[in-house]
Amino acid sequence: MLAFCAQHGLPKPKKQKVIYVRGRKPRVDLVFEQYAVVVEGDGYAHHSDPESFEKDRRRHSALQAKGYAVLQWTWHALDERPGEVLSDVKSVLRSRGWDG
User: Fold this and answer.
1) Angle (CA) 1 57 21, round 5°
2) Which domains does the chain have, with CATH numbers?
């Protein structure tokens, strides 16, 4: 995703960043800190069991309650539909002040 961002002129996100919310320290895949936008890459192998599914929902809800926009994409989508991913990321970044 870092290469994808660079290739398409997006701001450089931080990866595997810890964001403190609700007394917890969840680690997010990517965050565009200046714009409070989180991008999570979900793979079925690590997010399919009920416990992981529930944990992901709690984390994303907590981040949203703190003011972050959270985008979730599978790595398959990034490979198969990169234009869709790019359009959504740009749209959210622009809605939060990015002028790219």
Assistant:
1) 85
2) 2-95 (3.40.960.10)
Distance between CA atoms of residues 38 and 80, nearest Å: 21
pLDDT in tens, 5-60: 999 999 999 999 999 888 888 889 999 999 999 999 876 555 567 787 788 888 88
Pairing of strands 37-42, 69-74: parallel
* 44 closest CA partner among 7, 72, 5: 72
DSSP state of 54: H
DSSP H or E run through 13: none
Q: Exposed, middle or buried, 57 (CB in 10 Å: 0-12/13-18/19+)?
A: exposed
Q: What is the pTM of this model?
A: 0.87
Neighbours of 80 (CB within 10 A): 10
